Amino acid sequence: LTPWYCQPVVRKGIWSVGSVLLQLLNDTSRLDRTAKLELYNHLEALAEVLLEAYSGAVTAKIEREEEHKGLLNEYWERRDALLESLYQQVKEFEATYKDSIEGAEELNEEATMKITSHLLSIAKRHGCYKVMWTICCDVNDSELLRNVMVRV
């Protein structure tokens, strides 16, 4: 039995809401830092739910020995689009607010690393190697890259 959240209509609805949130994040340069961060957090949570729904749906099809290649391709495309967009938002957030408060550079780096590490764990869980690679290269941490890739 496939859980309700893995049904196509649910996945389509979640994707639609995620697309709207992503568009809001991209189009709203007038939002303050707190509002943008809140939108980002909602989109990140929605991405996790959507990716888990796809993962469950693919697993169910495999277990029932049904054709799953189309669904798998859809999952990969949406996973990559969501996670790459989320990471782009993190980079824009960091660039915009990096020097906004004097003396708060360490605080900004810490906040960015917290967001990035959560995004990295989502990417790892769903096998999004491109995002994992990009994050590790951007933070210039070969040890992190080694740890992430070894445990995948």
Your description of this structure?
It contains six helices and no strands. By secondary structure, the chain is mainly α. The model has no long low-confidence stretch (mean pLDDT 85).
Summarize the structure.
It is found in: Nucleus. Helix content is 79%, strand content 0%.
Question: What brief labels describe this structure?
Answer:
Nup133/Nup155-like nucleoporin, 152 residues, mainly alpha, Nup133-like, single chain, structural constituent of nuclear pore, nucleus, transport
- Largest sheet composition: none
Number of domains: 1
Mass-distribution shape: flat
Structural class: mainly alpha
Task: Please write the string of helix (H) and strand (E) elements.
Answer: HHHHHH
How many strand segments?
0
Number of helices: 6
